[in-house]
Amino acid sequence: MSKITASAAGTITLGDMTVNRMGYGAMRLTGRGIWGEPKDPEEARRVLRRAIELDVNFIDTADSYGPEVSERLIREALWPYPADLVIATKGGLLRDGPDQWRPDGRPSHLRKALEGSLERLRVERIDLYQFHRPDPMVPFAESLGELVRLKDEGKIRHIGLSNVDSEQLDRALAMTEIVSVQNRYNLADRASEAVLDKCNSLGIAFLPWFPLAASMLTRAETRIALVASEHSATPGQVALAWLLARSPVVLPIPGTSSVEHLEENVAAAAIELRRSDVDLLAA
Q: Does residue 93 sit within a domain?
């Protein structure tokens, strides 16, 4: 399994950057409730190093993961970074405790969050900076406008969005180039289907978060088990392979705190589902 690398999924472009189409989401490297330090910090760093060995060259994180813990672990494990590594981070959420998330889209907060990410990741520019979630208390254009200013200042290379609808994506595109959208999407939850279709038509990368949806796939268990058996794969690998087959703009970012699970996820890049498999799973 470990001989299969992320390059088996092919590549995808984000603006002027090209990465393998199997990424890694670093949210799960933190403590329970995405809060505090991991139980085993060295194992967390080992997962990150193993991801690089498996040709993963896109890592997704956020200042709110920990908070600050995930970004710091990435720097500790991987700096100085490989030349082809793209680290995407996000800003726009505050943390009050485990499993608690509160939007803050004020321009002053986004600027402070961006500056903190630059320092923790030890970079002069963020390759992909994503607005984590629109804040209902702050006009969307004000939040995004600050990211545009930060890009103009050379602190952001490309801008992405997260947790947005089609109308918000249209509004953002009227203001600036958007190279990625990160929304919740998986076999069990396809509420963002319209956003994915828009990204597909425009050539914008779509990063599905919660891609495995392990606790939500019970209704599709029989179909997944059948396809998994035919491909000698695990249900989780089939769920990832389905995302890769769904659209060429999909860039899965499965997360884990286990090297073994990481290798299993990356191996899904080599699974080639038949059209009949894709249709069966989506039924």
A: yes
